[in-house]
Amino acid sequence: MRPVGIVTPRTPPSGAPYLIASVLLWAVSNVLPALRLIEEPIIPAYQTMMGWELLTLGWMGPLAGHFSWYANPLMAIALICTLARWRRAAQVFATLAALLALSSLSLIVMGLPKNEGGVGHLGFSAFLPGYFAWALAQVSGWIGAVRGLPPKAPPVV
Predict the structure, then answer these.
(1) What CA–CA distance (Å, rounded) separates 53 from 33?
(2) pLDDT tens, position by position, 80-102
(3) What angle do CA 24, 28, 29 make, to 5 degrees?
(4) How distant is the alpha carbon of residue 114 from its chain centre?
(5) Phi, then psi, of 42 in degrees rounded to 5
(6) What is the CB neighbour count within 10 angstroms for residue 93?
(7) Helix/strand/coil (H, E, C) string of 80-143?
């Protein structure tokens, strides 16, 4: 029992569990189906894209007006900044990553070009589990960066 009137310092909440969850969710999102598209011109045909396909092809997204892939490197930078305990930089990069991740919702309206000539069009059909795992990884990474890691313990002399 502690004496009345003595306040013990509390350790600030740690973002470590959220950062671990973010990395795990991101890894899982790469092996799950993430997106279903539909070819619209003549006969409807569905095309399912796995998370790893979106990861390898997403850097070309700006050619079609989609920038959400760039949330991945920004979240990686936020994770590195958090581990280095650069809290403000981690929060900035994680917030930018989360905002870019939100831009993936533009797929619902814009779709994707089928080829470089713009002849065909792939319309949005559905987000699949890989997308939701990726989106949760972004949210979890943001929470982890905002909470940060506890300060390092001073060296014992």
Answers:
(1) 9
(2) 999 888 889 999 999 999 999 99
(3) 115
(4) 25
(5) -115, -75
(6) 24
(7) HHHHCCCHHHHHHHHHHHHHHHHHHHHHHHHCEECCCCCCCEEEEEEECHHHHHHHHHHHHHHH
List the beta bridge partners of residue 36.
48, 126
On whether the CB atoms of residues 30 and 130 are closer than 8 A, the answer is yes
Dihedral angle, C-alpha 110, 116, 119, 123, nearest 10 ° = -30
Write the pLDDT tens digit of every residue in 29-70: 999 999 988 876 666 778 888 999 989 988 888 888 889 899
How many angstroms separate the CA atoms of 104 and 127, rounded? 10
Contact status, residue 128 vs residue 36, Cβ threshold 8 Å? yes
Q: Exposed, middle or buried by CB within 10 Å (0-12, 13-18, 19+), for 23?
A: middle
Q: Which residues pair with 38 in a beta bridge?
A: 46, 123
pTM of the predicted protein model: 0.81
Spatial separation of the C-alpha atoms in residues 22 and 143, rounded to whole Å: 9
Number of H helices, E strands in the chain: 6, 4
Q: Kindly list the distances between the CA atom of residue 51 and the CA atoms of 2, 33, 64, 144, in Å, as whole numbers in the listed order.
A: 53, 6, 18, 23
